[in-house]
Structures are given as structure tokens and as C-alpha cells.
Amino acid sequence: MTDAASLLQPDRGQPATTIHLVDNNSYDAWLGVQPQRHRTALSAQRFAPSDHACAILPGDSPGEWCAVAAVKDIGTLSPWCLAKAAEQLPEGTYRLAKGEPGAAMLGWLAAQHRFDRYRKEDHRPGPRILVTREAARIEETVLIAEATMRVRDLVNTGAGDLGPAELEAEAADLARRHGGRITVTSGRDLEDGYPMIHAVGRAAAEGRQPRLIELEWGREDHPRVAIVGKGVCFDSGGLDIKPASGMRLMKKDMGGSAHALALAGLVMASRLPVRLHLLVPAVENAVAGNAFRPGDVLRTRKGLTVENTNTDAEGRLILGDALTKAGESGPELILDFATLTGAARVALGPDLPATFIRDETLAGQFQTAADAESDPIWRMPLWDGYDEMLKSDIADLVNAPEGGFAGAVTAALFLRRFVPRDTPWAHLDVFAWRPSAKPGRPKGGDAFGLRAAFRMLKDRYPAA
Fold it and tell me: Name one Pfam family in it (predicted).
């Protein structure tokens, strides 16, 4: 993974190339005091002060130069306003001509991340290092950038190289690095305690058995926080098999677990005063003679029965057992991340995680954090009136109502059945994939709502 720490350094007066920041409001005044060589260079490069534009300007002598980068607002730098510059500028060390990069440090780091597991890049650009006097922000910015990069790497990895065992290894590595304790229940051992996880994953090949991965960390007397992530390492759709086009990106169906693992890592690395409980139900939804079937009635850890009306609505099944286990320890808060429904993408597109929160205080805290981090979420309704869509003729509920109406809402309502009634809970239905590139955010796996969730936890549980 990209070494983010090497790309952001304290400003100790070391030699660095200057970057001038301009926006639409300041550009004319700035241009008016520039030497003719700068104006000529800007004209030759057809520079305009539109967001993310970047140009190189000649210096006073051969070999000397500086750069100019356009941002939306030089008074309030966004996380991504320097990302294009970090992608385009030559290898070297840089500092801003005025002010400090602030939030833009994140985009500077994330823009230089490359997922190169499967290809050799002979001309990978050298590092672009940014120096800043905001030394106190460097460590946390690096942590968040590395968490984002980890989500990208996990989601981008092909399912042949990332199955339930590899997710277990990720959690074990986190536990080792931060002094946590890991527990894994797998294979036939799931049948009694976690029957829905077992049912969904039992058709997978040898070595890819289903499992519930749990990591616990922190002091017993701290508030208990559970983070749950959907870990469907590949989703064929099961016997309700997907068409080829629908299966193409299903390596990313473990994106919820990638978010949960990354967030847990941030919590532990930052030593937040919480008792962390990370739960990842990890399965492959495969097709075989022992695959669970449409019409099967599944038992659950909670004791409810579920009529399986669609084997391609498997994520909510495994989450149901994991959420039940999370609630048994009396947590003060439960968060879950899942690439759960296409309906959420139809409603909100790829950039906005559909967010369901039934506690108003938590909803306010989450929205405040999302705004502060420029990491948007969009709250959706847990509409009680649609609960009747989950009715079954033969069991306590179905997993996938007929008709397709309000698919993201009914999926969230299904999950709600497995969360203790009085426990604050947030469910993020994330896409975990960027279908087209933006500055600092390449096409492929990506994190959504991660920074907002971490900021919310920091604000809710401030370090001493």
C-alpha cells in the first residue's frame, strides 16, 4: 500500500516548490501582479481558474519554477481541492505560498494511492511531498488516508484472492497491531448459533467456508460500541443467480466489511475511549447442490424465522445474525456498513450512502460530522408503514418483499428487527465503488461515509 506518511511532512524550512492557490474571485488580482513570463506561461497552458486546474510557471533562472492551482474557495479548502495537483505535478517537495493545506492534505495523499497488485507500473510517478506547519494534523490525516486506501485495496482485490479466510486474516492483523482479541466461528460450528450465516455460505468451496469474525478491544469500563460489516466476498446471487452483467462487480460485495475493518482500525489507532466490538459475517454466496433455496425457512440467532424469498438478498440475512450477536453485549451504539441494495443506488447514485438512523441525537451527530468532514451521507426513512411488506404467510418475516418498492427502506427495516429496540443504531447502505474517476478518487473501490463515521465517534467519545 502507498506509504502515506512519507508524503506529508512537517515544515522545517526545507527546500520546496511553491504552489500558489487561486479561485475565481482572487485570480484577476493575483494575475495582475505576476511577471510577464507567468502570464505568458498561463496563456500557453490555457489555464483558467476553474476548480482543479493546475499549471507550472517558470522561475527567475533555469531550473527554477513554481505552480499555480485553482480551488473553489481559497478561504475554505476542501479535502479534494489539491488532489489534481498531487496527481499532475512532478516528483518533488511542495508548500503553499500562503496559508496551510488543512483538509486538503487528505486529497494530496489519496491522489497518490495506486492499486498495483495485478500489474507492473514501469512509469509510476515519484512521490509528491507536501510540507505544512500544521504538524498536529499530520498523524490523523495519514491514518484516515491509509484507512481509505485500505478500503480501496480490499474492494479492488479479486474474489479469487480475497475470501472469508482473507477477511479473517485482515481482522487478525488489526488485533495483533492494536492488542485486540479475535474470535472466529466457522463452518458447521455456525449452524446452531448463527444459522443464517451458515445457510448463506454453506455452498462455498473448501477453504472458503462461512464464518463470523469478531474482534474486541478496549477497556471493559468504557462505553461499548459495535461495528458490523457485511462480508459477502463474492455474490453470484445463489440459486436466484445474477446475470453476467450483475455479477461483474460482485467482488465488491464485501465493501461493508472493508469499511468496518478500516473504521475499527481508526478507532484503535486513535485510542478512543470505547470498548470496541467488530463483527464481520464473511461468506461467499455460491451455487452448489447444498445451496440454500428460495422458499426455505431459515432459523435465526434471534429466534425469528425468515422465509427466504430471494437468495440474492443474502446480505441482510448474514447481517441479521451478526446484529443480534452485537446487541447481546448491551452496546451503547451499533453501526453497520453494507453494500446492501441496488435500490439505494437508484435513489441516490454512487456518491451518497443511504443512511438509516432511528435515534435523533445520533442522527444529528452523524450529520454534523459528515458536514464537517465533507463526507456526505443522506438520511433515509425507517418508515414503519412499510414494515407490513416483510410479512410472510408461513414464517415471521420474508427477506425480500415482492414488487421492489422502497427496496433500501425494506432492507433496513429487516435489519431493524435484529437490533435491540432501545440501542442507537445507524445503517449505511454504501456502494463502495466509484464508477468514474474524480480528482484523488480513481475509478474502483472507495470509502463512503468512513470519515463521517470516525468524526462522529471522535466527537461522541472524545479522548481524555
Answer: Peptidase_M17_N_1
